[in-house]
Amino acid sequence: MAKKSTIQSYQNIFSIALPMILSAISIPMLGIVDTAILGHLDSPIYLAAINIGATIFNVLFWGFGFLKMSTTGLIAQSYGQQNQAKINQQLTQALVIGLFIAVILLLFQRWIGVFAINLTAQGGQVADMAAHYFQIRIFSAPATLVIYVLFGYFLAIQQARKVLFIMLVNQVGNMFLDYVFVMEYNWGIAGVAYGSVISEYAAVLLALYFLFATGFKLPHWAQLKIWLSPNAEMKSFFLLNRDIFIRTLCLMAVFAMMTKGSARLGELTLAANAVLLNFFYLMSYGLDGFAHAVESLCGQAYGAKDKKALQQILKHVFVISFSIATIFSLLYIVFGEKIVSLLTSMQQVQIYASQYMIWLVIIPVIAMPSFIYDGLFIATTEAKIMRNSMVMATIFCYIPLWYLLRRYDNHGLWLAFLSFFVIRSIAIHIYYKKWIKFWAQSLDKNSI
User: Fold this and answer.
1) Interval 159-180: pLDDT, tens
2) pTM of the model as a whole
3) End-to-end CA distance of the chain, in Å?
4) Which residue, of 118, 153, 350, 418, has the greatest Cβ tally within 10 A?
């Protein structure tokens, strides 16, 4: 198989990573535009409210990110095995589950919204505005979850450009609608929510067009019943998604507690951290492009049982990602304060945020390994490793430090956040060393 010897090349890595980076960076760019638009209104309350509202949906939809991750890992392996029938089955299962979850979210939206606002906000006008945002934005759930599944599919079959086009329709449309609804029609935070909902459905229409253009056909009823019936494959599918979901719940807890800690310190801290977290999102989504390349290419290598290719892909991606993380840190050192001033014209927020820029300089290089290893263990569907390392970093590091460092106010929050990534990167690296040795031994046994 020709691909077996070439999938580890830098060219192939970049052919997947660059479209994914461009599409991924558009996500924090949307947050940056939202922040910039609301940051130039007459009160920091708008920034504080959008921080809470956006965090709720980032956390909520991250919680169902297993739909994309498991779809990518499973289909990439089937793609490596050249098993088209299995690809169709896995994609259909993921779409049905995604739509089922979306229906549950819509049915229980009232209770979910109350719980989320109480968890992340301290009450008052900010909480009321965030609740209004939630009530509108929740109707984007079906489109968002279907897009997650289709992203995983296109990434697994190495058609990352389609992901880029879908994301551009979503984010560019969202930015345009945000400007029109907020700046022209003065709809405030509701305008941002409506822009998100409309653009999500426009993107899912394009995604479905791309899907059916690839030759995918909906299964007939009898076939669908077989694919969704309880069996060993469905059990493995749910166990995989369970472990990814637990891993994601831990990540959700970290960001929810970061927002809650910011709110406890007041509206100024909440607004400043909303600005600063955009720096983190920009970095993380940029590095995620190469993690996505690992998911697709390592999944194919794993399905083809090509250990050499898998290790070479990982080596190349680490070299590239370390370089990019270093560039992010240097950019934040040189241009950090200028970027903050672009995001908000409120001088008190600018001055306050600049005091904590040092944390955004340190985090990229520290966090980078965990992003790449996550991509590997999605590709190999070893979700237990992702789950265990994330649980360790959250329960035994972040949560205790979040409480113990409260006396240091916002510096304490950021130190706990940084420490979380330190432990997460160390733990998952140790797991990798054990896993690669075990997999190599199993390949040797099978070759005898």
Assistant:
1) 888 988 998 898 888 888 988 8
2) 0.75
3) 21
4) 153
